[in-house]
Amino acid sequence: MLARIDALMDAEHGTPEGEELDVLTDLVEHYESKHVPMGYPSPIAAIEFRMEQAGRALHEHLGIPAEVLLQEPGATLAEPLAGIE
Description:
The protein is mainly alpha-helical. The protein has helices at residues 2-8, 16-35, 43-53, 58-62, 66-70. It is elongated and about 50 Å long.
């Protein structure tokens, strides 16, 4: 079903293909809501999501540079950031 949805992704709304896409995505969503438990996101994913919602301004409210919050795991800083020791 997912392969068919992928094939229909460019279908225009109101066409038979667009209607098929709508039905298939609804069916997959319904199936997943019943059979695939959605766990909690990782702390990093939750912070990134909230930063996107806040227009990447969450770092200003927390007083933590965005580079620190969004760095890849294991990354090192090239130079120290002001206010972070």
